[in-house]
Design goal:
Layout (H helix, E strand, L loop, with lengths): L10 E9 L2 E8 L5 E7 L5 E3 L5 E3 L2 H11 L7 H17 L4 E3 H15 L1 H11 L5 H16 L2
Parallel strand pairs: 4-6
Antiparallel strand pairs: 1-2, 2-3, 4-5
C-alpha cells in the first residue's frame, strides 16, 4: 500500500476491523511513520439480467442513483436511502446465484419505496413500470391509495 503522505510503498497494518461489507485497516508507513486508513471491499460478480436479455454486472451506484432521483425534494433522510440500497445489495448477494433478474431488484425497490414515501414510489414506478400515459399513472396511484386504505 502506497503512503498517501510520502509515497513510500511499505506500510504495516496496525489495526483491522470488519464492518460488514468493508474491512477497515489502519496502516503505518514504514518511511514517515504517519498513519492512514484504508477500506477494502469484497467484490462479488453477480450479473443483472435486463428485460431485453442483456446482462450487466450489478452496480450499487446505479440502484442508488435511481432511488435518489425518485426521492428528490422529498423528506427522506439520506440514511434511509442508503439503508434501502444496502438491503437490495445484501439481497442480491445473499441469493448465491451468478445472475438475478432486474425485475426482482426493481420490485424490491418499489416495495420498499411504497413503505417509505408514496410520492417517491410513484416517481420510481413511472419509470420502472414504463407507465405509457396519464391513465396508466392514474391507475397506479389509485392502486397505491387503495392499498393504503386497507392498511
Amino acid at each position: 500500500m502506497i503512503c498517501p503522505y510520502c509515497g513510500h510503498n511499505n506500510s504495516r497494518v496496525v489495526d483491522t476491523r470488519d464492518s460488514g461489507r468493508t474491512i477497515r485497516r489502519r496502516r503505518e508507513c514504514g518511511q514517515c511513520k504517519r498513519r492512514f486508513t484504508t477500506y477494502e471491499q469484497v467484490i462479488h460478480s453477480v450479473l443483472v439480467v435486463k428485460s431485453d436479455g442483456r446482462r450487466e454486472p450489478f452496480n450499487r451506484e446505479k440502484v442508488l442513483r435511481g432511488i435518489r432521483l425518485a426521492c428528490v425534494k422529498r423528506p427522506i433522510p439520506v440514511d434511509t436511502i442508503e439503508a434501502l440500497v444496502d438491503q437490495v445489495e445484501d439481497f442480491v448477494f445473499s441469493q448465491g446465484k451468478a445472475e438475478i433478474s432486474s425485475k426482482v431488484i426493481g420490485n424490491m425497490v418499489l416495495e420498499r419505496l411504497r413503505e417509505i414515501d408514496p410520492v417517491a414510489y410513484i416517481r420510481f414506478a413511472s419509470v420502472y413500470l414504463e407507465l405509457p400515459d396519464l391513465e396508466a399513472l392514474r391507475r397506479e396511484i389509485d392502486r397505491l391509495l387503495g392499498s393504503e386504505d386497507t392498511e
